[in-house]
Description:
Layout: E1 7-12, H1 20-30, E2 34-39, H2 49-56, H3 74-80, E3 83-89, H4 91-99, H5 105-112, E4 117-121, H6 125-129, H7 131-142, E5 146-147, E6 151-154, E7 160-164, H8 168-183, E8 190-195, E9 200-201, E10 207-208, H9 215-226, E11 230-235, E12 247-251, H10 255-265, E13 271-274, E14 281-283, E15 302-304, H11 308-315, E16 320-327, H12 331-341, E17 346-351, E18 363-364, E19 366-369, E20 374-376, E21 380-381, H13 382-399
Parallel strand pairs: 1-2, 1-3, 3-4, 4-5, 8-11, 8-13, 11-12, 13-16, 16-17
Antiparallel strand pairs: 6-7, 9-10, 14-15, 17-19, 18-21, 19-20
Helix pairs in contact: 1-2, 1-8, 3-5, 4-7, 9-13
The chain binds ligand PMT.
Amino acid sequence: MSFSGKKILILVTGGIAAYKINTLVRDFVKENAEVQVLMTPDAQKFVSALTLSTLSKKPVFTEFYGDNGTWNSHVEMALWADLILVAPCTANTLAKMVNGLCDNLVMATYLSAKCPVFIAPAMDLDMYQHPSTNINLEKAKQFGHHIIPAEHGELASGLIGQGRMSEPHTILEVIGKYFNSKHSQLSGKKILITAGPTYEAIDPVRFIGNHSSGKMGFSLAKEAAERGALVTLVSGPTTLSIEHPNIKLIRVTSAKEMLTEVMEVFDSVDVAIASAAVADYTPKVVAQEKIKKNEDSFTIELVKNPDILKTMGQQKKHQILVGFALETQNEMANAKGKLEKKNLDMIVLNSLRDEGAGFQKDTNKINLITKDEIVTFDLKPKTEVAKDILDAVEARMENK
Ligand code: PMT
């Protein structure tokens, strides 16, 4: 991860976690960032300006006025920064930030800034859970600020709970991903992803489903969001959850519901990826009451479900459309057939014959097929497979 040329303004406020800022500043500088540190008066009780100044290789400012009548311009520093990080952010500073209070150099600089703001809160667990802190964090999110949530663990009070400032390496990673996302072709683009299985009701207690866990689709959604895309994730029933400011999760049950949600947004997206395992057939009639076991055999008449991906293919205009093919035999021929029939730009082939691939697993093994080429990948975690798929999508966007 390189922060070469990035100007990072770190606003340190008065909490015990301030001692971790020494490590953070050292790590940012090691990665070639230019770091300017400002501190509140209380922060200086927890960590020394001299240490931070030595590590950042710049003077650290704590007051509006320096010696010899000099002025530490909050406006200049705010406009200099590519990014502001408030860490640790106490409950007090958070409350001031969302209410526009301006009683020290840190607050005046924050209020003068136009760049992205990241907040790493740190406080005792009851303070972190207090409704007013929750409201203030929500308000900060509404301002467009990025929250790096506090972690669970032992706190300075001796209590155990959520409130510890995120570790420096986590903060570094979050900010690194943010800068990377700015270079991505997907940054600011809209992407639709389908995930998970569909359940087709037989009666009020039974359904036809499949083994999809949603892991592949959720990994794609997370990776796309981290690259700066605005993601609509339409998922069938799964135990997974996902929280990211760029992801809107819509939960559905049946193929018909999935089709409705997908077609609601398809026209407006730049990319659509169908990783859901959609049931091809659904019961013709859904019994209103639980079916009793009277007979020795029992027949359910099934009718074809709509093909969601094919419908997208028929209505495709500017979108890049990516499908999946889950096969058990004649893999390549079947996948190529789907690429053509469904009017796709790319199809991701995974086969249940490959150890570690397909349903439920944390890993997958894929071939990426376009009309011009086939690229074969090794078995990898689904989080990495998502990167390979999105790299290929980005390459296509670049050439479009
Ligand atoms: O969820 P996991 O446990 O992580 O597992 C991931 C996965 C195995 C489900 C995933 O990698 C995968 O292969 N998804 C596609 C499964 C599938 O239904 O494949 P298919 O070959 O039957 O369908 C071809 C394509 O048409 C798929 O993109 C599918 O989403 C789409 N389709 C199929 C039928 C239908 N009625 N509507 C569709 O949109």
